[in-house]
Design a protein that fits this description.
disordered C terminus, Four Helix Bundle (Hemerythrin (Met), subunit A), 75% helix, mainly alpha, Arc Repressor Mutant, subunit A, three-stranded antiparallel beta sheet
Length: 231
């Protein structure tokens, strides 16, 4: 049976969805920021129909909220939501790291080490935040691939996108970045040595440490905003 061909409106909606999703993940839109149909239609040179379809899909994926009388806004996550996302990521990706340590090949270890090499080499670049975020995601994805469990990989990947929506290397102090890079090296060592217990432990601690850093930053920024509002 032949697959149904997409019409122009459906293709436009997919294009808008992909572009907006990437922009949100990249931090181009602030949490709580409005996405106005009229502005988006002008930006993407399409009618409002594909814009509405793209926004509906983004809402279904949890990237935006549709608020009555306000429209689409980038979802603002609470400290509790952030904590829960990272806690589940820690559980899933720890299991993935343990499986990766059992199933890895020599080529896998070389690839993981190469990503660590590039992260350390690029840490001082002017555009380090974007580069490190991309490489960090690449490393976590590669470990999940090596785990050989596609369901685990797909589930963790969805949470990782949400996690990276709210997580940025801009929140890291130099000590936090140093810890993260050292964690990656420990992960590669654990996987290389086929020590599943070690790999599981390092991955869990790595993700929870990132969670704690982000939560501290969120609390500090909200306290600062409250203080300004009262001033």
């Amino acid at each position: 049976m032949a697959s149904k061909k997409q019409g122009p409106s459906e293709r436009s909606a997919d294009r808008v969805y992909a572009a907006l999703r990437a922009a949100i993940l990249h931090g181009d839109y602030e949490n709580g920021g409005r996405l106005t149909e009229e502005v988006l239609a002008e930006r993407f040179r399409v009618s409002r129909t594909p814009i509405r379809a793209a926004l509906a899909k983004l809402a279904g994926d949890g990237f935006i909220d549709m608020i009555p009388h306000a429209g689409a806004v980038v979802r603002r996550r609470t400290n509790r939501e952030v904590s829960e996302v990272y806690a589940v990521r820690a559980l899933l990706e720890s299991a993935g790291a343990g499986l990766a340590a059992t199933l890895r090949t020599d080529v896998d270890v070389v690839e993981l080490a190469a990503i660590c090499d590039e992260m350390e080499a690029r840490a001082g670049d002017r555009d380090a935040v974007e580069i490190l975020s991309t490489l960090n995601k690449q490393l976590h994805h590669r470990i999940l691939d090596i785990s050989g469990n596609q369901t685990l990989r797909d589930t963790a990947d969805r949470l990782m996108d949400i996690g990276f929506l709210i997580h940025s290397y801009t929140k890291f102090q130099p000590r936090d970045l140093g810890r993260s890079l050292a964690d990656h090296r420990d992960l590669v060592s654990a996987i290389a040595s086929r020590d599943a217990e070690w790999a599981t432990s390092v991955m869990g601690a790595h993700i929870l440490a990132a969670r704690n850093t982000l939560l501290e930053t969120m609390t500090d920024s909200r306290d600062s905003a409250d203080a300004k509002a009262l001033a």
